[in-house]
Amino acid sequence: MSGVPNPDELRVIVATDCGSTTTKAILIERTEEGYRQTWRGEAPTTVEAPFEDVTRGVLNAIAEIEELSGRQILDGERIITPARGERGVDIYISTSSAGGGLQMLVAGAVKTMTAESAQRAALGAGAIVMDVLAANDGRLPHEKIERIRNLRPDMILLSGGTDGGTVSHVVELAEYIAAANPRPRLGGGYRLPVIYAGNKDAREQIRQLLGERMALCIVDNLRPTLERENLWPSRQKIQELFLEHVMAQAPGYKKLMAMTGAPIMPTPAAMGEMIRTIAAQLGLNVLGVDIGGATTDVFSSFRVEGAPEPVFNRTVSANLGMSYSISNVMARAGIDRVLRWVPFATDEAELRDAIKNKMIRPTTIPQQLEDLQIEQALAREALRGSLEEHRSLAVGLKGVQTERTISDALSQEASGASLVDMMRLELIVGSGGVLSHAPRRVQAFLMMLDAFEPEGITRLAVDSIFMMPHLGVLATIHPRASAEVFERDCMIPLGTAIAPRGTARKEGVRCLGYRIELPGGRVEQGEQPFGELRRLPLGRDEQATVELEPARGFDVGAGPGKTLRATVSGGEVGLVIDTRGRPLFMHEDRQRRFAQLRRWYEAMELYPAPKPIEVSAMAER
Amino acid sequence: MGHAYTPGLRVARRTRVRKRRTLPLPGTVRVEVGERVRADQVVAETHLPGDVHSVNVVNRLGITPSEIREYMLKQEGDPVRKGEPIARAKAFFGLLKTEVPSPIDGSVETISTVTGQVLLRTPPKPVQVRAFIDGTVLEVEPGEGVVVETVATFIQGIFGVGRECWGRLAVLAPGPEAPLEPGAIRPEHRGALVVGGSLASYEAIARAREVGAAGVIAGGIHDEDLRRLLGYDLGVAITGEEEIGITVVVTEGFGEIAMAERTFRLLQERQGAQGSLSGATQIRAGVIRPEIILPYAGGDPAAEPEEEAVLGEMGIGDPVRCIRRPYFGRIGRVKSLPVELVQVESETRVRVVEVEFDGESAIVPRANVERIELG
Question: Helix (H, G, I), strand (E, B), or coil: what is residue A539?
Answer without folding.
Answer: coil
